[in-house]
Write a structure and sequence with these properties.
With about 625 residues, the protein is an alpha/beta fold. The chain has 2 domains: about 200 residues, no CATH class; about 325 residues, Alkaline Phosphatase, subunit A (3-Layer(aba) Sandwich). Helices cover about 45% and strands about 10% of the residues. The strands form 3 sheets. The chain has an 8-stranded mixed beta sheet with strand order 6-5-7-1-8-9-4-10, sandwiched between helices. Strands 11-12-13-14 form a 4-stranded antiparallel beta sheet, with helices on one face. A hairpin with a 2-residue loop joins strand 12 and strand 13. Helix 2 packs antiparallel against helix 3. The longest helix is centred in the first third of the chain and has 28 residues. It starts with a helix and ends with a helix.
Amino acid sequence: MNAITNVYRQSPFWATFILIMLKMVLFRQFNFGTIQIDRLLADAAAVLVILCVIELITTRRWKPPVFGVLNGLLSLILFACTVYFSFFGSVPTYSALHGLDQVGQVKDSVESAISIKFFVFFLDLIVLLVVSLVTIRSSNRKNGNNAAGKPLYVGIALIVAIGASFLYIRQDMDISNELVQAERLGVLNYQVATAINERKENEAIKNGDPDKTAEELAALVNGQYNEEATEAGTPKLFGAAKGKNVIVIQLESFQDIMVGLKVDGQEVTPVLNDLIANQNSFYFTNVFQQIGQGNTSDAEWNVNTGIYPTGTEAMSKGYGDRAVPALPRLLSEEGYVTNTFHVNDVTFWDRNKMYPALGFDKYYDRPYFNDDKFNALGASDEEMYRVGFQELLKHHKEGKPFYAQFVTTSSHHPFWVPEKFKHIEIPASLEKKQLGYYIEATNYTDYALGLLIEDLKKNDMWDDTMLVVYGDHFGLQTKENPIEFVEEELGIKYDDRIGRFNVPFLVHVPGVKGESSKQVGGQVDVMPTVANLLGLDLKGKGVSVFGKDLMNTTKNVIGMRYYLPTGSFFNDDIMFIPGKGFDDGTAYDIETMEPVADFSKYRADYDYILNLMKLSDEYVKLLPKR
């Protein structure tokens, strides 16, 4: 202890630098699976900037505790970023701080993402605290409150470190792949690069016009799809459900692999299976999530607006003050009553702001439901449907068409279903495993949906209602569900990206012959698809969407960001993930899930998606505020 005390007393600056850099090594190993010595120089430059500033402004007496606090703060940041990466697969930016107030609502999910090894970031802090206290007492006796010298070498080091960080950031500023950029720059410089890029983007559009952006969108789409075989004139099935009630069901954490699956001879999703088999249902097997930081709330945004999430913040938080030309608003203008139902508090992810932005007439949240304590989010799906159906029945009896959104929660991570709600027996090999819990949760979600459908049929509402069902995002965590394990237990082909990000999308339209389709789509395609069926002329209404009507699409490419780096896309053939750019990216066949060696012919899709999402970001930022 005396030796450590002497070292720390003589140079808390260098002791802190060494400790933090060791943690940077751990951070890279935990998150990127490699250390990359040359990339640690970027970390070192950023750390030195902070340490030099502290060294110059702190008196000698306070150096040890101040450097100790800094070490603790950076340790906490690295710990939090590692937990975040473990769950979401991305390095968070400062904008993720906007979501800190939501952590308590999903503490079970957060706790499950924490590995005991992550606490190694804090191992040195107890020793450092003791050392700091000893050093402070010694400094008090010997030096009093004298200010520390500000040697020239610290100032020089600060200038060199700032210059080095600037060069690193400038070199990698334009990399669209956030993971590559974060790995090259390090977690601290990555925050600076993100802030600079965001400022540049906002400056570029501050005098913009959403109508101009819409024109650029039309030119982009026409240029990409000028050979698309779409029927001329009135689109196919335009107005096929005109005047019908619309019920939109968002299935929590619901992957398409659950649909049609049997476990020990038991159907996991018998209700969805029956819907798909119904001659009036359209089922799209290759639809993928497109959410950003807002996760479930972003899925609500995507589906109701046809606009991409920015990926830098939850859309409910960043754009809840806008007047968005979304489905609820458009249908309100057509005389529909528009309601949304969610059993949690409406302030969760600022839905109290997002729902008015989307144009919903009324939202129903926690106070409207009897809390049967299904999980941490509140009541069960059964209770949500019970309350929701009573409201819809009132509208039906009054002769008012309605647009109703139900956001399910019973299959929320970590998927623990209370015993009295279970409706399936899982095999012994899956007991106390996440996959087993997930099967039970998705089975219950399916069961509860069946109860709502029964109520609609009993009250003569089924034939007057178009039902839209889709998954918001993946459920199975990769670290707890290795590919080989999932394939062996479920007897399916699985992939931790294609299979994991594939969500169900089903539309039941009374009186219309449906079909199953392998047409690739995303959540931004739901809005234009539903609008077409309802006979809403989006172009005629001056509404821009960044998805496509899947009923009239034979060629599609959709972008994904956040859970995959920007520039990633799915088209009718492959899933593509960029490296530093297109040429060093990787591609996988969406059917076989095998690597595709030559993907050079898809460069146009890569450029298209980057431009499309850029225009989407511009458009939403330019929408008028309410």
